[in-house]
Amino acid sequence: xxxxxxxxxxxxxxxxxxxxxxxxxxxxxxxxxxxxxxxxxxxxxxxxxxxxxxxxxxxxxxxxxxxxxxxxxxxxxxxxxxxxxxxxxxxxxxxxxxxxxxxxxxxxxxxxxxxxxxxxxxxxxxxxxxxxxxxxxxxxxxxxxxxxxxxxxxxxxxxxxxxxxxxxxxxxxxxxxxxxxxxxxxxxxxxxxxxxxxxxxxxxxxxxxxxxxxxxxxxxxxxxxxxxxxxxxxxxxxxxxxxxxxxxxxxxxxxxxxxxxxxxxxxxxxxxxxxxxxxxxxxxxxxxxxxxxxxxxxxxxxxxxxxxxxxxxxxxxxxxxxxxxxxxxxxxxxxxxxxxxxxxxxxxxxxxxxxxxxxxxxxxxxxxxxxxxxxxxxxxxxxxxxxxxxxxxxxxxxxxxxxxxxxxxx
Length: 410
Fold this sequence. Notes:
Oligomer: single chain
Radius of gyration: 20 Å
Shape: globular
C-alpha cells in the first residue's frame, strides 16, 4: 500500500496501466477569500463565522484577497457556495461532489482553522505503507537499501532547514499531514511563493479529488517542542513562526490524477505537486521566500543514480515511533526502484521515516555545486526501512513551469 498521511483509511482502486505520457499536467484554480472562523478546534463545527472583507475585486485595505461577486456566482455554478463553505460546507465529502474536475478545486482561506491545537492533532496513525517488495522490473531495480535511522534536525529548524515545513489539509476521513519545501520561482527571483510536495498530498488520485483547506507552515514547531509541551497552549508564533500559507493554486501530474492510488505505488513515478501560496494573515507584502529567507532550486533530469553521492530527505514523520511534531532527515546514497516497465525509475534510499514525511524534499548537490531539490518522498514500506521518490523529468518540469507562468505577471 501507498505511504499515506496518518489518520486516514486507504482507499483501494486504480489501474496498473501507465497513463499516456502526452498528458502532462492538470491545473487547479483556487479562489481565495480571507474568512474568520471562531474557535475552530479539531472537532468543532462552529458556524459563527463572518467575512473579513467586502466581496469586491482585488485586495482589501488589510491586504487580504477578496472574491468579486461575479466570481462567487461562477463558483456557485460548480456547486461551491462560499458562504456555505465558510460555515462548514467544506466538510461535505459527497462522493459525486468530491470527484470533481481539477478546475473545480477550491481552497478559500478560513482564518483560524489551522490553530495550534488542530495542527498538533492532525498527526494521527496508522499510515498505510506499501509492501516491502513492489518492484515491477528487477532489471532496473537495485537491491533493497540497508535501513538508515532518521536523525532529528537540530533546532531552531529554521537555522538548519529553512525551506522545509509541514503541509496540513482535510480529507473525508479527517485532518491529514504531509511535508513540503519552499522552491524558487523563475518568474520571481528572490520572491517565490511556490511550494513543492507530493501529488498525493493535494489530490487523492483516481478514486478521489482535491483535498481541502491545504496550508503550508514553514519551520513548524521551530524549537522542537514535545507533544506534551504543545498541549500546554503555546502561542501560535511558537508553532508557526513564519506564518500559515494557504494554497491558492495546486497542480500535479495528469498521470497521478488518472492512476494514483493508495495501493501498490500506482502513479508513484509521477507523484509530485507544486502549490502557489498566500499568507493567511498577511506578511507585510513579503513573499514566502523573503519571509523564510531561502528557497531551493529544482533540478530536473538529475544525474543517474551512480553519479549521485548522496541525497537527504527531510520530513515530519507522524506514525510510530514518531509523533509528527518534529523534523527529521535521512541521508543515503540512492538506488533505483522500478514499479512498472516503461515508467521512469524512482530514487530509493534507506530511511526509517514513516507517514507524514510524504512530500518532503530530497536534496542533492546540483550541477552548480549547490543544494537543489531533486525529488520528494512518495512511498515507503511496512518495515519503514526505505523511502522512494520520483525522478523529476519533463512531466515534473511541466507542472513547475505552469505554476510559475500562472503567476508571472502578478
